[in-house]
Structure formats: structure tokens, C-alpha cells
Amino acid sequence: MFSIGTVARQTGLKVPTIRYYEQVGLLGAPERTEGNQRRYGKDQVERLGFIKHARDLGFPIEAIAALIDLAEHPDRSCAQAAEIAQRQLEDVREKLERLTRLEAELSRIAKGCSGTGVADTCYVMASLADHAHCGSEH
Amino acid sequence: MFSIGTVARQTGLKVPTIRYYEQVGLLGAPERTEGNQRRYGKDQVERLGFIKHARDLGFPIEAIAALIDLAEHPDRSCAQAAEIAQRQLEDVREKLERLTRLEAELSRIAKGCSGTGVADTCYVMASLADHAHCGSEH
DNA sequence: CTAATGTCTCTAGCGACTAGAGCTTCAAGA
DNA sequence: TCTTGAAGCTCTAGTCGCTAGAGACATTAG
Ligand SMILES: [Zn+2]
Ligand SMILES: [Zn+2]
Ligand SMILES: [Zn+2]
Ligand SMILES: [Zn+2]
């Protein structure tokens, strides 16, 4: 049985984050000592590792909850898991596309100003004021 | 003089968003009709366009506030504008790098499961449970 | 003049935490 | 065994940039 701090060190999560996951129902309530402190078993530490990894990959809490539900019913079809992973992939790809466009505009904008001029004639200011300077939609 | 709804249509912002920008001090309080409705002048519409464009490029509100301050003092040095643009560019690049790594992992994960199996032996589940499957840090 | 649409203020909610106050419990050394 | 300092507890509120809704008032077209 591990204290919350020990589990935090093992999983790379922060202590308040672990409590938060419990609060939102991602993790079942752990046992408690007589003095009301949380004590986690190996299973729960493993589950927190799962959550951590899924969060690191950007999955939202709600999706992780569905995946955990699935993990608790190992003989169910994994169709939902595939769907969730696919959705997350698409989400990331959309964000990538948007950020790629932004990177192009921002590097142009940043390149256009050395910071040695005056606000009135600054390329950064002009670019922000008028989207017509831009080479793409965003 | 334009009503808030008209300005919303002109700028592409939503009505509550414009009120929000006023609330957080990005936009000075506009004139009001006798009946207490907001009426915007051309300058304010332009400024809202500036804000919209900067937000579309991902600049945080605080940075935009600093840029607007600069726009109101056209003879000041644009060093701060250059700095803000540079920081935003770096921020976007960091996010791009992270998302690129995530895309690699997620496309591997999604490819590994057709959704026709069972949760217990699902590649998605296994990949989330163990970072050792991953080809990079994230 | 009426009816429909627009606008007003205020509060609360989103996602995923994070920070802090004020208190209690645990564990290790003397 | 006692003490002390770290760790844990609950609860509230704050972060960011909006968005939604309630209930009341203003404007405008027909
Ligand atoms: Zn400049
Ligand atoms: Zn643009
Ligand atoms: Zn599968
Ligand atoms: Zn991984």
C-alpha cells in the first residue's frame, strides 16, 4: 500500500492531480488509514500510469474514462477503443494543420521586424492589423 | 455608430466575446444610447479587427493588450512587439514539435487496432498501458 | 402600435488542473 | 516514548478565453 506522495513519484503525476482524478471519477476511492490518509494498491497505481500515459498523448478525461471502463471488461469488443484513438489522431492532425499555418505566418511576421524601429511603421503591428498580409487562412 | 451585433458581423467576433473584451480591458468602453446599448465608432471596430486577427494567430489576451498599448503610442520603439511575436512563434513551434511526436505515436496506435478484436488483447489498450511501446518521449 | 429581434446585466460553466489556507497525521531520529 | 518536520487532509478559489442561459429592457420594421 502506497501513500499518495509515493504514488505521485512513481507515476509522475502531482499529488493534487491524483486527488482530482478521484474526484472526477477516473479512479475509484482508495482505502484509507485510520487517520484518513489515502493508501493505494498496485492495481490503482497501474491505472494511474495508464491515465498519465493517455493524458500525455492528449486524450481527454472523458475518453480515458471510457477506455478504463473497457479495460475493466476485457472481453468486450475493442471497437470503441479504436474509435477513440482514431478521433484523437484526427484531433491532433487538425491541430497540426492549424499550427503549421500559424507557424508560417508568425515566422514571416517575426522576420519582418528587427525591433529597432518604431511602433507606427512596425511590420508586426501592420501584419496584425490586416490579414491581407497573410498567405493563408487561419 | 454601430450596434454590437453589427460589429460582430463585421469582425467575425461573437457578441458576448466583444463584451468580454471590454470587460477584461482590451477595448475601452464604447458610447451608449439613451437606452444603454453600446454604440461603436470606426476606430473601435478596427481595434476589434486587430484583436480578432491576433487571437486567430494565437496571441494571448495579455500580449494583445501590450500590443494595443503600443499601437496607441506610435512613436515608441517596436522592440516589445518584436519580442511578443518572437515568443508566440516559439510557443507555436514548441506545440508543433509536441504534436508531431503525438501524431507519430497515435497513428501507430490507431493503425495497430482494427476494432474487430477484444479489449483484453487490443493494441490500443496495450499501448496506453505501457509507454515502452512508444518510439519517442512526449 | 405591435411584434420580433436585439441588447442589457449577471451568474455559472467548460477542461484540466493549480494554489493556498488551516488543520491533522505519519514516520524517523533522539 | 517523545518530538518534530514532512506529508496528508478538505475546501475554496483561481487559471484562460470564452460560452450559455435567465430575465428584463430597447430598438426597429411593418
Ligand atoms: Zn517592428
Ligand atoms: Zn491573417
Ligand atoms: Zn483493438
Ligand atoms: Zn508513450
Automatic annotation (TrEMBL), chains A, B:
<keyword id="KW-0238">DNA-binding</keyword>
<protein>
    <submittedName>
        <fullName>MerR family transcriptional regulator</fullName>
    </submittedName>
</protein>
<keyword id="KW-0805">Transcription regulation</keyword>
<dbReference type="GO" id="GO:0003700">
    <property type="term" value="F:DNA-binding transcription factor activity"/>
</dbReference>
<keyword id="KW-0804">Transcription</keyword>
<dbReference type="InterPro" id="IPR009061">
    <property type="entry name" value="DNA-bd_dom_put_sf"/>
</dbReference>
<dbReference type="InterPro" id="IPR047057">
    <property type="entry name" value="MerR_fam"/>
</dbReference>
<dbReference type="InterPro" id="IPR000551">
    <property type="entry name" value="MerR-type_HTH_dom"/>
</dbReference>
<dbReference type="Pfam" id="PF13411">
    <property type="entry name" value="MerR_1"/>
</dbReference>
<dbReference type="GO" id="GO:0003677">
    <property type="term" value="F:DNA binding"/>
</dbReference>
